[in-house]
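Notes to self after the call with IL:
- keep both proteins in one doc
- input above output, always
- annotate only the second one for now

Protein 1:
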Amino acid sequence: MPQTFYIESDEEIISVIGRLRKSSAEKNIFVFPKRALVLQSIINLRLFQREAEKLGKKIVIVSQDEVGKMLALKAGIETESYSEDFSKKAAHLELTAQEKNVPLESIAKPVISGALRSDAIGSSNFYATESAPQTKNEPLPSAVETPVSTLRVRNITPPKLTSLNSKRFEGVSLAPQAIRIPLKETEPAVVSSPPLSSARAFAAEPYGIPQPQEQPRDERLKNFYSNVPKVTVAPAPKKDLGRGTVPIAGKKAHKIFFILGGISLLSLVSVVLFFFLPKAEIQVTPYAITQTTEIEMDGRSDVFVADDGILPVRILEKEKEVALTFVTTGKSGGTNQKARGTVVIYNNYSAESQSLVATTRLETTDGKLFRLTSGVVVPGMTNSGGKKEPGAIEASVVADQAGAEYNIDATSFTIPGFKGGTKYTAFSARSTKTMTGGGSGGVSDVAVVAKVDLETAEREAKEKVKDDFLSEIRGELLPNERALDEQVETVLLAPVAMPTVGTAASAFDYKATFKVRVFVFSEKTVKEKAEAAGEKNLQGIKFKPISSDITYSDSMPNFSEGTLRLRARALLTMESDVDRDSLREALLGKSEEGIKQVLDSFPEVKTIKVIFHPQLFMRSIPDSRERVFVLLEPGEKME
């Protein structure tokens, strides 16, 4: 039957090997807690396994410490995980029944005649220095002649020699304590217990274990030197430590174990970094080229699906009004000058304002005509203290004809344009000063409407209507649709009241209504045809389109028939087609030389850059595809 040993976290390898040598079972199970001192060093574990092989015994390490189990496996020791099933199967205590009618005797004190020698590990004289026989104590005066059972606690580690100033076993005797445990309800019994540390003694108090009383320091020193046998520690050789020899000598031993533990920890971190963390980022740069392609397509408004070069189109149509004011640039070409001045125009018609355009005629009572040099808005009537006041505004006027007879004094004017309506008598004007400037003998500097002014007004009115129309329909377009901005049609719906060429005016107003319409189509369909027409193979390398810039020129729309002859020029940007998955598979596990050989099979790759993580340990691409990432960089022009 296998024997189970429970190891303390700070217990050293010497103690563990001592347990193994005292075991009579062929299979021995050692239960270690997490971060146990023995499990932190591969050297300790190899010494442990070698000692077991020499003794012809099998050892099994049970622990939840994954790092320690991994080191144990490397040392050749079988491991198991600690679980509830194991704790139920493992025997924590062993009961040994004694014969009846045999008087109970106390447990003998352990006698230490010498220190455990580390250089004897793995040899037949491992405990050669421990030769002093154990002596029995005097029988307890209260011994009972009844059958008893001896309970052996699972921690059978030989007592450790502590330093003089150690606080761990301060106040605790090295001699084992005796506890009486009855086999029956009416019978007492005695249980032997190993020495307890202060922490264990405190935990044992509820179970009736007698605790030693605290002694003064001087008495403890006296007892220490009188009761504890002398321990001789052989000095460790300075050079050439024998194979399997581990020097254990106080602080020096702790320092050695600390150094070995640090080396083991560093080795473990290196192993974890190498096997679990390495990654590689592969930056691939393909080739890039540009191509220009011209295509033609027939658009039809009665077709809804693209087929054999037929492009579905639709027409968007709106009516737009425009009102603009333009400054005249012409000058009067006559030799006579025209009189000019200012008038105040009155609105006795209503509370609403009235607009009057440039060149509006004003007529005197004797029939002389003057015209407004610029458009004005006459305010409406107002109510002040229950009395209605007419709206009034001052405006500049110029005589319709040249001559000194237009240099008239202040007078009243009517507006001939309102004749025949109620506004004719409600609107009036009056000058407050004499009109001046009329005469002959010099070149006139009066501004007049020129032909170029009328042409400019019509052109700018159409451009404004077009811009306003395109801005409105942006929100009406479907995804991937495009309006053919280059072929927007604007048609004048009604004649425009415009001044004639030569009319004296510094500015004039232009008002008109236009019908605006445009063809709309799917630009995605156009791009697909342009990309399909591009050249896909160049110098044995396959290319794919990345982006396209399309311009439309010389297209011929026919709005009445609903057809469009579309002509487009596409500037295509193309990159070599790199199969990232195939490239990654080919590069797995490759070093620098292997990477160069792989690139010979991928002519579409211009350059490649491999970034390792971490840089310190990596010299080749990892074998696992989950730790290799391929990133495509922007293409570079083919030389």
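Protein 2 (the one to annotate):
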Amino acid sequence: MVGSSPSDELDAIRQESRSPGDRKIVKSIRESGSQTARERIENLLDEGSFVEVDAFVKHRSGDFGMHLHSPLGDGVIAGHGQIDGRRVVCFSQDYSVFSGTMGEMHAKKITKVVEFAEKSRLPIVGVWDGDGQRAHESVASLGPAGDLLDAIVSCSGRVPIISIVLGTVSGTSALAAGLSDFVILGEERGKMFMRSPYTIPEIIEGELDEDQLGGAEQHASRSGVACLVSKSETEAFDRAAEILSYLPDHTMAEAPILHSGERWNRKCKGLEKLVPEDSDRPYDIRGVIDQVIDAKRFLEFFPSYAENVVIGFARLDGISIGVVGNQPSVLAGCLDIDASAKAARFIRTCDCFNIPVVTFVDVPGFLPGTVQEWGGIIRHGAKLLYAYAEATVPKLAVVTRKAYGGAYLAMSCKHLGSDYNVSWPTGELAVMGAEGAVRIIHRAELAGSDDSEGTYEQLVRDYRDKFGDPYVAARHGWLDDVIEPSQTRRALVGALRPLLSKREIVPPKKHGNIPL
């Protein structure tokens, strides 16, 4: 700029970097009710806390006329700031620049802040809104994209990673988002595809639209990619902040303790009425969870995926906990393939970040049938067992009713290193239900009986009288106590407090080999 001072030139360049996108696209973004990439960053972070890096970066491609258009920032805003006073590293893809596609410098920018997060031991929050790999740059962008994926994997388990998907995300961007600990999809515009939707036959031929194949509802209920769905962009940012409130900054830190003002030893009123005495009658395990935790504040993940198990964050006496519970109102609480994988991944996430796991057990077994057997219920069920056995965080479990067979073993049993296990008087810990056990044990007797039905009913009653309570397990030391339901909160908090200093020495090894 002729005749201008260096300061004026800097101001002009900085101003250009703040609005690099196509004005028509920016206008259409705003008209659709969305925000620009910079507005999203400002909405996500505490006011005035954002520190931007690499604002002046440009792409280096000269093919397909790219040299005629090289906007500052190369389609992504990156840096660090604060969320509720907590330091975080963040980035936001800019759809108004090359449709948010990931070119060489675009990928390098994100990699730079991800590596910064690993060194600084800070959480990462990424806002994704890009159409995958930038075709115009071809192979030149592949290497940096691989570097980005490698950096995210290096951060996994070291710092929390949250991805917020607010547009159509495909290819490498979708893979990168999928590596996160938590994925939040915008209900209206959030879409994810492994391949660009422009190349998917069902969409090209009009059999499906983008929402039906890769929309938020599909990824929340069918694929299990999205742990939460937000109705608005602001709600998505609030959800990300809420998740962070339960987590530490990194794996060597402790999560914040936030007291609700409730008494730690208050009684859990109404649990006896909430859980039916008839073990075949369903109920909603969320009602039990709400009565036990602080202020009934339960942040549930994947609420519409594998609904036969419930997972999420809550607090006990201000302490962050991960909650896992069988859901008797869906498939009678049986564990299936998706439920096992869902709970196993969550338990491992809690273990990464020092979050104690509290398990509510009411499980009649693994779901039977050819679909489950051929689908690999053995290896998927083993994942859940593996996750509990591997976890070194405090593990507590409450048996509310049924705890049968292999499913009992897979749900934080004492034999997998659980630290505190209790049961209500209604608990039934057995190899299987009385009905099935009688048909196996007394098969010959039933076959030769003149009144097989009456004999069967009497044998079932006898079996229940002998094994249909928690006291046999308690006598073997597999339960630490049998408690009244109203004392559940008091018992869990009393056990959790000393367990906060728990440390386990793990034998040296590279890593375990969790079932596929």
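Annotation: Residues 474 and 480 are 7 Å apart (CA to CA). The mean pLDDT is 91.
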